[in-house]
Amino acid sequence: MIERYLAQELPERNSTASRYRSWLKNYIKPKWAECSLDQIKPLAVEDWLKRLCLAPKSKSHLKNLMRVLFNAAMRWELIPYQLNPMSLVRVKDGSKRKREPKALSADEFRQMLEHVPEPFRTMCIVAMCMGLRVSEVLGLKWRDVDWEGMRLGTRQSYVYGIPGAVKTPASQRWMPLDRSLAEKLRQHQLRSASPVHTEGWIFANPATGKPYWPGRIQENWLVPAAERVGLGRIGWHTFRHSHSSLLHALGVDLKVQQELLRHADIRTTMNIYTHAVPAALREANSKVVRLVLPAQIA
């Protein structure tokens, strides 16, 4: 069943497919590949998950993948149509984070930024000012910048060396581009002029012409820079979380927050429904940019 799922049912989005392959290879296949479907019982799966040395959130992801496999098995009529047995599996604290995500203040971000060289410095600024996921930052192309309309389009992502779709349909949209941030991109464009064919990627490695690998940047520059100024360990998602926290601290309307963060469901932001007008989006985003990029920042 696992091999059939790999061949026919893997999600199209590359990052999700890669994650599923890893979980199947490292956890599910070694334990369950030799078992028939009727041998895989909820209590046995629950006990297996308890014994794994993983965070509760990761165990919850594995449980969900097991549920996906059983849904496929029912669709293929390998087992009778019935309640998916994996829905009975419980994972203690599966919905809780092992630790709260870190959010940087504007001052902390500027302190860290002093120890990050270009072009990674500009990548951090874009991630912090726009609240983009790192896959979306890497997926940016110069064609996505509307200099006249002062807009930035998030049209594609770049994950594990492969371009693909953004996380959700809500993630693919035009976002307001503050003039201070536009100037940063102009400066980066001038610095990065190179004879290497880069296919239009904004943050292309001059050695390959392709976007950088974010994990290497994180370990080589972001983590050391943050630790150097006493902020502890951070990652790329820290900037998106910090952007969200700054919007909240500024009292930005929740619907505006949802649209700036491009959450598909406002419940991800908070369960309040209002209407956000484009002017409000631009004003809210510019407030964050002015906090992060005061006039004296070079």
Q: Note the beta-strand portion.
A: 5-15%
Number of strands: 5
Radius of gyration in whole Å, from Cα?
22 Å
Element order: H for helix, E for strand: HHHHHHHEEEEEHHHHHH
Describe the structure.
The protein is mainly alpha-helical and 298 residues long. 50% of the residues lie in helices and 5% in strands. It is built from 13 helices and 5 strands. The protein has helices at residues 2-8, 14-32, 42-51, 56-75, 106-113, 120-130, 134-138, 179-191, 214-228, 236-249, 254-261, 266-269, 278-292, and strands spanning 145-146, 151-154, 157-159, 162-164, 173-176. A 3-stranded antiparallel sheet has the order 1-2-5. The chain has a two-stranded antiparallel ribbon with strand order 3-4. Strand 3 and strand 4 (162-164) form a beta hairpin. Helix 6 (120-130) packs antiparallel against helix 8 and helix 11 (254-261) packs across helix 13. The chain starts with a helix and ends in a 6-residue tail after the last helix. Residues 270-277 have low confidence and may be disordered.
Question: Short summary of the structure?
Answer:
The chain is mainly alpha-helical. It has helices spanning 2-8, 14-32, 42-51, 56-75, 106-113, 120-130, 134-138, 179-191, 214-228, 236-249, 254-261, 266-269, 278-292, and strands at 145-146, 151-154, 157-159, 162-164, 173-176.
